[in-house]
Specification:
Blueprint lengths: L2 H22 L1 H17 L2 E3 L13 E3 L8 H7 L2 E3 L1 E5 L4 E5 L3 H14 L4 H10 L3 H6 L1 H8 L5 H35 L9 H23 L2 H31 L7 H13 L3 H11 L18 H25 L3
Parallel strand pairs: 2-3
Antiparallel strand pairs: 1-4, 4-5
Helix pairs in contact: 1-8, 2-8, 4-8, 5-9, 8-9, 9-10, 9-13, 10-11
Length: 332
């Protein structure tokens, strides 16, 4: 089968994925949830100074709820600014005091939204929502028609995998782009860095959805795909975080805290499996969350995020190859 024909099949499977999502109602559900969040962002307003310091100067300020901010004489003598901003939700029904200027207050709100999209919550919810696509596609009564055509089986899996990625991309772009535009129109802060949530979510999802595809090929069960994917993510997270903890403790104790076998096993597990903690560190730094939250890891010395992403993607490539081999050998 030539390349053009394979491309045509993949394109048709991408369209079929969206058709399946419309028929099941999942697409409308996600669009509805995103629309609610966008409307909520249209009810947000922020009052306060646009900047707490002149250009090229480091801000010197106190939040208004700080005890020292109540002493007017001290403040005048020191020249320290009091941050008196307010973040209002639901058209002023809920008001929250903020300890930064307007751009930083909006950035903080964007990070809260990003935690539900590009970080752990968004990834796990997306894996759950999309778990039913592949088992239904691989059911004998559904796939028999496709297998009758002169299409390599790996092309069918690739088409469905790309179709689900496209589905996630569309909804992530709608949610992130919509909330970003709504906040920008309401507050006047056009922080394009928030839009990086879209590729960050797609990267994490592409890595872990490969394992869900392998489960679907082996078991053809939505339940197994849901719980198996979440359990696999939990195991990867534990090994990833545990390896960093072992290395940090071993370094502090100058090599005497753990046995060499423990250190080696932690290192092997770390390099073989996907690395959700490292991906979280990547998202944390990319979105500039360090100005509002404590870092995920206390120390990132010796951590190569590029190598972490590359080895995680390599694991996914191996899993996809294993899934295609298994699918090619299955009898229908």
């Amino acid at each position: 089968m030539n390349v053009a024909a394979i491309h045509s099949v993949i394109f048709r499977l991408v369209k079929d994925t969206f058709r399946q999502s419309f028929v099941s109602g999942l697409c409308w559900l996600l669009f509805g949830l995103s629309a609610i969040c966008i409307l909520g962002c249209l009810s947000v307003s922020v009052s306060g100074p646009m900047s707490l310091a002149p250009p090229d100067e480091t801000p010197n300020f106190l939040p208004r709820f700080d005890k020292e901010a109540q002493d007017e004489h001290k403040l005048k003598a020191s020249g320290v600014t009091v941050a008196e901003g307010t973040l209002s939700l639901a058209f002023g029904a809920v008001k929250v005091a903020v300890a930064r200027d307007v751009p930083n207050a909006v950035h903080f709100f964007q990070l809260i939204l990003a935690a539900g999209v590009a970080d752990t919550l968004g990834l796990l919810l997306t894996l759950v929502w999309t778990a039913g696509f592949l088992p239904g596609f691989l059911a004998p009564q559904a796939v028999a028609v496709l297998l009758a055509k002169p299409v390599p089986r790996w092309g069918l899996l690739a088409g469905k995998y790309i179709g689900v990625l496209a589905f996630v991309l569309v909804h992530a772009a709608f949610f992130v782009g919509g909330t970003w535009l709504a906040l920008a129109l309401r507050t006047g802060v056009w922080d394009a860095g928030y839009l990086l949530c879209i590729p960050l979510l797609l990267l994490q999802f592409a890595i872990f959805f490969g394992f869900s595809l392998l489960l679907a090929v082996c078991c053809r069960s939505t339940v197994v795909c849901v719980f198996g994917s979440i359990a696999f993510w939990g195991i990867c997270w534990a090994i990833n975080f545990g390896r960093h903890a072992v290395m940090a403790a071993d370094k502090v104790a100058h090599g005497g805290s753990f046995s060499s076998l423990m250190v080696r096993m932690a290192d092997i597990g770390y390099w073989l499996l996907p690395k959700p903690v490292d991906l979280g560190v990547l998202a944390f730094g990319t979105l500039g969350a360090q100005s509002h939250f404590r870092p995920i890891l206390e120390s990132t010395a010796g951590l190569s995020l590029g190598l972490s992403v590359a080895t995680s993607l390599l694991f996914t490539a191996v899993v996809l190859y294993a899934a295609s081999k298994q699918f090619a050998e299955m009898d229908y």
